[in-house]
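Objective 1b: paired records.
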Amino acid sequence: MEPNNDFARSLSLLRREKGVSQRSAAKELGISQALLSHYENGVREPGLAFVRRACDYYRVSADFLLGRALTRDGTTIGAEELYDASAEKDNVMRGSIAATLNKKLVVNSVGVLFDLLGKAGSRASIQAASDYLSAAIYKLFRHLSRSAGASEDFFAVKSGDFVAGCVTADMLYSEADYVDALSELVKEKGKECFPPMNNDALKNDFPQAHQSFLQLIHNTGERINFDLENRWKGKK
């Protein structure tokens, strides 16, 4: 079912990105709105003819639409081809010690997360986690870009849609997908499919990143608890 979930998500995201209603897209694709809704929600699987029409309509490759490639033209990107910031010598950013330290905390912690998900063996949860984190980075970078007065032509999501919270909504959907994927994994394989996640196991499995991961967990917990007792209750 995972490939179907990838297809359904891609189909829905492409339509929203194009800025057309489900009714309009269905008309252009030669099917009913109800059937398109079923495709976008993963209720039904389409035939090859529809996949071909959808690829032409959204101008993407079949591999991209089916979730088999990260690029729209279907070009495969190998893990070895991607730049790895964590492999930089000393992993240092110019001009700010704070930026360097926080970069290490986040990069190392994300590495731990994806390694654990990889060991659990759920492609859907890995994709959902990537979608969630990608949206968070997108959101922060776009706020930065807007503050700097840069042109928003760089971004596909319209300015009004961004301000209205569409990226935040995407994060919520991605989180829901993530939770659903983990739930399905437990149903299929049981909780024993997950690697041990106690402190000793994490320290043993991730000797280099372990400290960063613990620090991020601790810092986040402390910040949220402080906010619960102060800012979010109206205290100063």
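Objective 1b, second protein:
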Amino acid sequence: MPSRSLKNMLLQPNFVGSLWMIAAMAAFALEDAFVKRAAVHLPVWEILILFGAGGALAFFALALANREPLFTRDVVSPVMRIRFAFELVGRLFYVLALALTPLSSTTAILQAAPIFVVLGAALFFGEKVGWRRWTAILVGLAGMLIVLRPASDSFSLLSLLALIGMLGFSGRDLASRAAPASLSTRILGFYGFLTIIVAGVLFGLWDRSAFVMPAASALQALAAAVFCGVFAYTALMKAMRTGDVATVTPFRYSRLLFGVLLGAVWFGEQIDVWMLAGCAVIVGSGLFILWRGNKAKSRS
């Protein structure tokens, strides 16, 4: 029988919220892996359309169950149009990166997104960032360069796909901060997946690759990706609403661990010392930025 103190710890909101965050990051990593698996058989534009349609239907059902209107004036507000543009860029280039580059390096580059969010908040929202956090931002950027290694023989321009995708997601997250409060996470999720469909259509018009009738294995991979994505989004919201943001947010970096492990085990990717060093620098600087930001808030 567990002791009373252990029971109390297991029921603490921060402990439960941290578990939800870890579950969300594991599911996001699995979503990436299933999308990468589907890309072996299907063109990227087709994956985007099918994946977006599946996710949009799932969030449509959730919104319908909660009797939430899918369309209001706030949906077409200026900030939502900006969010749409960043979401489109982020999703398109990130899926391209998943299809064409190793899962481990793509996941590692994505972990720099919180650093760019803080950078954007300082530049566009006037958020105060002291010299220590500016230093951590620069260190985080150096960590990303260690992962990319642009001066090495192993560098590929395809690695820039993940970088552009990460910048798109960073812009989306910044726009989400300014999004109307009337729009629930289910509505944001619905329009987010509709954006993926638009990205697929636009890329298909540019790529002009032929439609491929999906085999059962490809459809299963996409269905699993949709399930993981919807679960991950829901778990993420539960994490942010269960525990203190300052406590549960650092567990976002567990996605890096899951992504690197899946890349090595499932896809046979080689993880070298430089990759691990770059990941450590990115995560360390990100955690320091979070810590300094929470410390600054506690003083105000």
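The chain has a mean pLDDT of 85. The chain is about 75% helix and 0% strand.
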